[in-house]
């Protein structure tokens, strides 16, 4: 991402979609169903686990920092209860991860040599101490980078004590089994992120794991889910009450509107009277239309008979004139014959 894009993203995150009168590139609002509600609360697994071994790819819903800023501003005046949506999303994700963890444990149980109960207890003790060392090393490095040197030094002292305990636990584990079996790598599954950890992993390897983005990302997701689940019942009750309150408020607004516009409100008997009056007017209008159509038909019939009568009259006139001319011509011819 270029410096220009970084500055633009920072402005979007601070000022939302309305900065400089601009609309967001997705042309949606934060409350649209296409927008990821977990992202608005900064806990979407697709974002947290990006660029890790368990990268989930792009989220099917919209991620936009400007929409998150819009939501944070709107949340100050109205509760949208998106934490419940985010909780359901995280529950589904963590449930799937826990199923993968159990499947991985089952595969290890089937492929690794089975240990006796006593040896298994000692191996678990080594694993637990190694995990504590890795976690404290990662925390000490983080504090050192943040400038908390004294706190970091105290953690390093605790790490040294854990290392001594781990050496003793490893010695007990080594003495409880044959040398050939001890050299075999014994794996276990991380309960947080489902990664494989070996009993012979060194401190650096464990620190990289527990301080890595994948493990810390799962810790963030699980802690957020636990936080949301603590208040889930209370939030559901508040959401139901808010829903009833919204409906009551809508009813009050509707009654107030009717009171303000009572002269325009029609209902009950008045509606029936207006309906009857409308049907009566409609019937009268249809009767008039039928009467007008009948009158037009009679007028057309009368005009047709009149035209037919005039046509016959003209035909008789033509016949009489033709007969008169013929008679005159005949009389003239007879008179000529007599004169000759």
TrEMBL record:
Biased composition, class Basic and acidic residues, residue ranges: 234-273, 284-306, 331-340
One Pfam match: LUC7
Basic residues bias (residue ranges): 274-283
Region (Disordered): 234-340
Organism domain of life: Eukaryota
Coiled-coil zones: none
InterPro entries referenced in this protein's UniProt entry, alphabetically: Luc7-rel (IPR004882)
PANTHER family: RNA-BINDING PROTEIN LUC7-RELATED (PTHR12375)
Similarity comment: family membership: Belongs to the Luc7 family.
Protein name: RNA-binding protein Luc7-like 2
Originating species: Cryptolaemus montrouzieri
Classification lineage: Eukaryota, Metazoa, Ecdysozoa, Arthropoda, Hexapoda
């Amino acid at each position: 991402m270029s410096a220009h894009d970084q500055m633009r993203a920072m402005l979007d995150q601070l000022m939302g979609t309305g900065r400089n009168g601009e609309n967001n590139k997705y042309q949606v609002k934060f409350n649209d169903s296409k927008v990821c509600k977990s992202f608005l609360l900064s806990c979407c697994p697709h974002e947290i686990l990006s660029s890790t071994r368990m990268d989930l790819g792009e989220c099917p819903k919209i991620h936009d920092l400007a929409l998150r800023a819009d939501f944070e501003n709107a949340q100050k005046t109205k509760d949208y209860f998106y934490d419940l949506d985010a909780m359901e999303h995280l529950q589904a994700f963590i449930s799937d991860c826990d199923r993968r963890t159990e499947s991985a444990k089952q595969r290890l149980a089937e492929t690794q040599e089975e240990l006796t109960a006593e040896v298994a207890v000692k191996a678990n003790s080594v694993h637990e101490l190694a995990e504590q060392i890795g976690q404290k090393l990662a925390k000490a490095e983080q504090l050192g980078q943040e400038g908390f040197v004294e706190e970091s030094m105290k953690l390093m002292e605790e790490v040294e004590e854990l290392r001594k305990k781990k050496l003793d636990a490893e010695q007990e584990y080594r003495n409880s089994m044959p040398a050939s079996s001890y050299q075999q790598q014994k794996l276990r599954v991380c309960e947080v992120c489902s990664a494989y950890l070996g009993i012979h992993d060194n401190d650096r390897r464990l620190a990289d794991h527990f301080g890595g983005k994948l493990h810390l990302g799962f810790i963030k997701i699980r802690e957020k889910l636990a936080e949301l689940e603590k208040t889930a019942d209370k939030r559901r009750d508040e959401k139901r009450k808010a829903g009833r309150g919204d409906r009551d408020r809508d009813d009050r607004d509707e009654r107030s509107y009717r009171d303000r516009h009572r002269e325009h409100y029609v209902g009950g008997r008045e509606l029936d009277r207006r309906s009857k009056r409308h049907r009566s007017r409609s019937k009268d209008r249809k009767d008039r239309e039928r009467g007008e159509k009948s009158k037009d038909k009679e007028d057309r019939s009368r005009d047709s008979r009149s035209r037919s009568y005039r046509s016959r009259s003209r035909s008789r006139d033509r016949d009489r004139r033709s007969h008169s001319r013929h008679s005159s011509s005949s009389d003239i011819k007879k008179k000529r014959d007599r004169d000759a």
